[in-house]
Design goal:
The chain is an all-alpha fold and about 150 residues long. It has one domain. The protein has seven helices and no strands. The model has no long low-confidence stretch (mean pLDDT about 90).
Length: about 150
């Protein structure tokens, strides 16, 4: 367990990556779980993920929980590597089930109804690899726990 929590408590890069991920992913999770930011909440998200996306209910539940609670774990730097790995897996799933066939660009203007591409995912994966390797870094609960042991 100590290796899982180990981190350099002076690593600013891990802190910046954690905060960037958390701030970006938290609204997605809050939409899915709580209905905040114009989301559909737990029931609506479960209905969409299991009905339209045809995901098994356990996978849909894990997606919702990972985006919400995983972003909070990243924010506080607690179980950072687990949260980063879960985030990576969740967004790999989104990439390969929805976005990969839409090309590179996000196409937020929905030109020619092409959908959203995968450029966002390249940035997300680059960021998520940092805490996956480095741990929580500066100002993380992981660093505090390991230091106190």
């Amino acid at each position: 367990m100590k290796k899982l929590l180990s981190t350099n408590a002076n690593n600013w890069m891990a802190l910046v990556a954690r905060l960037s991920l958390s701030i970006t992913i938290f609204p997605h999770g809050a939409q899915k779980l709580l209905g905040w930011f114009g989301g559909y909440g737990y029931n609506g998200s479960m209905g969409f993920l299991t009905g339209q996306m045809h995901l098994p209910w356990i996978i849909a539940l894990l997606v919702i929980l990972t985006e919400f609670f995983g972003s909070l774990l990243l924010l506080f730097g607690f179980l950072t590597r687990i949260a980063a790995f879960a985030t990576l897996v969740s967004f790999l799933g989104a990439l390969f089930t929805v976005h990969i066939h839409n090309g590179f660009f996000m196409n937020w203007g929905m030109q020619a109804n092409t959908g959203e591409g995968y450029e966002y995912f390249i940035l997300l994966f680059g960021l998520v690899i940092i805490p996956l390797i480095a741990g929580g870094g500066k100002a993380s609960l992981d660093g505090l726990i390991v230091k106190n042991k």
